[in-house]
Amino acid sequence: MNQDRHYMRMALELAAKARGRTSPNPMVGAVVVKDGEVVGKGFHARAGSAHAEVVALADAGEKARGATVYVTLEPCCHHGRTGPCTEALLKAGVKRVVAAMTDPNPLVAGKGLAVLREAGVEVQSGLLQEEALRLNEVFIKYITTKRPFVVLKAATSLDGKIATAAGESKWITGHAAREYGHRLRDIYDAILVGVNTILADDPSLTARLPEGRGKDPVRIIVDSAARTPTAAKVLTQLSAAHTIIATTERAPVERRASLMAAGAEVMVVPGEGSRVDFVKLMEMLGEKEITSVLIEGGGQVNGAALAAGIVDKVAWFLAPKIIGGDAAPGPVRGEGIASLQDAIKLYDVSVERLGEDILVTGYTSERGGRLSLPE
């Protein structure tokens, strides 16, 4: 069993190499072992490319016959962008398959393991399942609900301020925390802010990593009245990612046309109120195969997202600074709560030091990264 755990950890590490690159697919790693020797390794690099099992089997060649395959997710048994991995495993003549978790995709959901068992392959599932679940928390939420996994990122002073009373916010956190923020942008499919952030700061909303290989997220601007300037950086900069303006029917038609002419995708979100309905917006983004959203909004957007119940995870940076002032803005606006028992609690909380700052991470559900798996 210790050896099994060793090889599964190796498979999990391989899977994580593709973090942020496989959407809408999961991250998957595979290791082929024969007579105590690793003879093949592989991971799913991006959507449409060969699956981890196929890559690992090709790496192993004839040595795969009679071997054990450790894979972080149940092998698929259906035709998608690629062929079934169960067929590849059976054709290679493997003796045993150890999976960290079953696939929550309704097209698989245990069927892949059943196919292998029926063909005489020894099958084991559940080894290091917690690690595998957390690795693919985005995929689990998306494949079971067709809505994106949502992370709310905030950075505040110790007294809960996101800017001074004069509006100065650069920079509350230090270099290490800001770099981590850009790594989050590199991981998730999209970044969401409100139009007030665009009007106040004209941000780029791109992933700028020290090594220069960040993947820009799709930019989503919540803009009920289509006030985003056509000269804003989110519309004029060079970027492989596009910009979506999420607006409402009350936005002037000519403004919508101007934004589309400037290169934006304008998404009119249905709803009865004057503001963008966040629940419907997430449904529409899911239809576009956007599997994850990083919210980097101000207090109004953060408050609306939390009130709508769309936030799955929180990444909160605390800087060892005290700003003070009644007029200095906080990170969550709106009506708030009347009773402490109604406060949004975080679960599976972790705390880490990033340079001079502290990062608190947690989930809004007791089930954490598994929030969308069946009970």
From TrEMBL:
CMP/dCMP-type deaminase domain residues: 2-124
Keyword match Hydrolase: yes
Catalytic activity, as annotated: 5-amino-6-(5-phospho-D-ribitylamino)uracil + NADP(+) = 5-amino-6-(5-phospho-D-ribosylamino)uracil + NADPH + H(+); 2,5-diamino-6-hydroxy-4-(5-phosphoribosylamino)-pyrimidine + H2O + H(+) = 5-amino-6-(5-phospho-D-ribosylamino)uracil + NH4(+)
InterPro entries assigned to the protein according to its UniProt record, in alphabetical order: APOBEC/CMP_deaminase_Zn-bd (IPR016192), CMP_dCMP_dom (IPR002125), Cytidine_deaminase-like (IPR016193), DHFR-like_dom_sf (IPR024072), Eubact_RibD (IPR004794), RibD_C (IPR011549), RibDG_C (IPR002734), Riboflavin_Biosynth_HTPR (IPR050765)
Coiled coil spans: none
Pfam families: dCMP_cyt_deam_1, RibD_C
Family matches, as Gene3D superfamilies: Cytidine Deaminase, domain 2, Dihydrofolate Reductase, subunit A
This protein's name: Riboflavin biosynthesis protein RibD
